[in-house]
Amino acid sequence: MRRLGSHRIHGKTGGAGTKGTVAKLSIGVIVLLICTFSLLFSANIRRDPEPTRSSKINVEELWESKNFEYCGRVLSLQPPSAPRSDWPPPTEETNGYLRVRCNGGLNQQRSAICNAVLTARIMNATLVLPELDANSFWHDDSGFQGIYDVEHFIETLKYDVKIVGKIPDVHKNGKTKKIKAFQAMKEHSAIYLTPFSHRLAEEIDNPEYQRLRCRVNYHALRFKPHIMKLSESIVDKLRSQEHFMSIHLRFQMDMLAFAGCFDIFNPEEQKIIKKYRKENFAEKRLIYNERRAIGKCPLTPEEVGLILRAMRFDNSTRIYLAAGELFGGERFMKPFRTLFPRLDNHSSVDPSSEELSPNSQGLIGSAVDYMVCLMSDIFMPTYDGPSNFANNLLGHRLYHGFRTTIRPDRKGLAPVFVAREKGKTAGLEEAVRRVMMKTNFGGPHCHTDSTVVGLGR
After folding, report:
1. Cα separation, 448 vs 452, whole angstroms
2. Is a pLDDT exceeding 90 seen at residue 264?
3. Where are the domains of the chain?
4. Glycoprotein among the record's keywords (predicted)?
5. SS3 state at 373
6. CA distance 279 to 272
7. Cβ neighbours of residue 272 under 8 Å, at least 6 residues apart?
8. DSSP result, 255-311
9. Is the separation of the CB atoms in 219 and 83 below 8 Å?
């Protein structure tokens, strides 16, 4: 009986509890529904103005230097490449000589020089001034001494590595004897590395080594005074009417062949590109539509013009083109020039330059292009995949003050331009702006822990 009574008491309590629970659940459901409707309503409010937001790219702000207050603090303008831990100077006696030959174009060579200095530091070796390959790309024998300020290079890095102009001659039995590479390596502790470009990993888990790379790239590698003077003269002429933008128009045969972007060309042009690819790159099956969809194809000159027009740059914008010989020539340039007629390059800005006329496509011409792009108010690379020129400049401009950079999202823009080619032109500019609004225009971006990316801090 006692047991039965306790069950009855338990049953009554359970019934009351059930009613209470149901009541609480009902209130919870009502609250949940209210929250859900509130969230949907606020999401719609945020979503509705999006087209208006996408049209608010402020061109005037893009022309200005970046505000240095980011991530909740003001950034120091002091270049962050100085050593911050124990960094002893090179020893009087090193382990030998390091001699390198840098292949590729000017900016691939520039990256190789940074790696050569770091390699010499790691090996405690004396670096012989790097040799620049004269044949594989530029057919230009200017060499390191013809492009860079050698005295400045050695002076800037004197606390990092020992540098000499050449391996010393050997005096033996009263005779002077030049050391060949293999003799130097075996008998005199010297190493000759050729070709020397990507011999070191990009990511090295030692901040001081990365800072040394920055010191080389952004401080020690200064072009010779006459190149700097010529570049500044061109910038002054371009700035004589306020702002100017520089564009690295990467639409040359080598890059198009590398990327596997053939289908926009006529059969004869395709034959030329495919032949170049077969002779210079490993065989690989490349499907144009797939390559383009993932952003692997360089933008055409016309697409560059459409992006700028969608961003509200007008046709009075002065544009400096850093570009080699464009594949397809005037057929591809004409639509761009129609949209933006004020196009210049180093030859058209200063046609009287005796310095550039014989070397407009050589190392000096590339050096001038680099400096003009570095000093421009806005820089826009049209292909920053395996592009040493664009990537070096992106880092250099970031390092020296967060200057505005427009980096088109080729993957995001691909469906927009494909739709245009199929005749769907309605809302083109709005669609382009919507993609471009997602870029940071060259400013730094913050991690969730409020550190600043790209500063080495």
Report:
1. 10
2. no
3. 59-76+223-251+298-436, 97-220
4. yes
5. helix
6. 11
7. 253
8. HHHHHT--TTS-HHHHHHHHHHHHHHS------HHHHHHTT-SPPPHHHHHHHHHHT
9. no
Which residue type occupies 369?
D
Specify the pLDDT at position 241: 79
- Is pLDDT at 19 greater than 60 in this prediction? no
Mean pLDDT is lowest, of 326-330, 351-355, 436-440, 448-452, for 448-452
Q: With b meaning 16 or more CB within 10 Å and e meaning fewer, what string describes 178-187?
A: ebeeeebbee
CA 61 to chain centre: 21
Give the residue carrying structure tokens 């007008």. Answer: 314
pLDDT tens sequence across 89-142: 998 888 888 888 887 788 888 989 999 999 899 889 899 999 887 655 555 667
Q: Where are the alpha helices (DSSP H) in 131-259?
A: 143-147, 150-156, 181-187, 207-215, 225-238, 253-259
- Are the C-beta atoms of 89 and 409 separated by less than 8 Å? no
DSSP-assigned beta bridge partners for residue 379: 246, 405
What average pLDDT does range 10-24 have in this prediction?
49
> Cα(246)–Cα(369) distance, rounded to whole angstroms?
9
107 is written with which tokens?
Answer: 């900016």
What does R_g of the chain's alpha carbons equal in angstroms? 30
Q: Is 445 exposed, middle or buried (0-12, 13-18, 19+ CB in 10 A)?
A: exposed
Handedness of CA 18, 20, 21, 26 (dihedral sign): positive
DSSP-derived secondary structure letter, 454: T
Does residue 387 contact residue 248 with C-beta atoms inside 8 Å? yes
Helices of type H across 295-345:
301-310, 330-339
One-letter amino acid for residue 34 of the chain: I
Q: Copy the structure tokens of residue 138.
A: 């530029």
- Judged by DSSP in three states, 116 sits in helix
Residue 185 has pLDDT above 50, yes or no: no
Residue 269 gets the label, from left (phi > 0), alpha (psi -120 to 50) or beta, of alpha
What is the C-alpha to C-alpha distance for residues 37 and 16, in angstroms, rounded to an integer?
A: 32
pTM (two decimals): 0.77
Query: Would the pLDDT of 393 be above 80?
Result: yes
- CATH number for the region 59-76+223-251+298-436 comes to 3.40.50
Phi then psi dihedrals of residue 404, to 5 deg:
-60, 130
Q: Which of the two residues, 21 and 219, has the higher pLDDT score?
A: 219
Instruction: Please write the tens of the pLDDT for every residue from 312-361.
Output: 999 999 999 997 788 888 888 999 999 999 999 888 887 666 655 545 55
Candidates 252, 226, 223, 297; CA nearest to 137 is: 252
Q: Which of 248, 217, 199, 200 has its CA nearest to residue 110?
A: 217
Residue 158 per-residue DSSP state: T
Cβ-based neighbours of 261, under 8 Å, separated by 6 or more: 288, 291, 292, 296, 297, 298
